[in-house]
Amino acid sequence: ANAAVEILTVEQPTLEGILTKEPDFVAAQLPLLLGDDSKVAKRQDFADLGIPSYLSPGICNTRDDAGDIY
After folding, report:
1. Is residue 59 very low, low, confident or very high in pLDDT (cuts 50, 70, 90)?
2. What confidence score (pLDDT) does residue 39 get?
3. Which residues pair with 55 in a beta bridge?
4. What is the pLDDT of residue 68?
5. Eight-state DSSP code of residue 11
6. In the predicted model, is pLDDT for residue 63 greater than 70?
7. pLDDT single digits (tens) 7-45
8. Rounded to the nearest 5 degrees, what angle is found at the Cα of 37, between the Cα atoms of 35 and 43?
9. What is the rounded CA–CA span in Å between residue 66 and residue 25?
């Protein structure tokens, strides 16, 4: 299924770049890409445009610093 998903960029996408694809849904795994402090866009930005979004929960949302794990 993942092979059918178009890669927009290997770097961080821009809101404008995402919107050129006329998405009907936007998903991200990292808050950096779709969180409250995102430089790309916030979930509310997409909601204001009528585009539903999903930010996958994960460790990036729950810890500020992973520290030295080794």
Report:
1. low
2. 87
3. 28
4. 64
5. S
6. no
7. 888 888 999 999 999 999 999 888 888 988 898 999 999
8. 35
9. 31
E strands of 1-70, at which residues? 26-28, 53-55
Q: Ramachandran region of residue 50, left (φ > 0), alpha (ψ -120 to 50) or beta?
A: left
In angstroms, the Cα distances linking 21 to 5, 14, 66 are 12, 12, 35
14: its two tokens: 């821009």
Q: How long, in residues, is the chain?
A: 70
What is the Cα gyration radius of the chain?
Answer: 14
Query: Residue 56 has which token pair?
Result: 């996958």
The separation between the first and the last C-alpha atoms of the chain, rounded to the nearest angstrom, is: 35
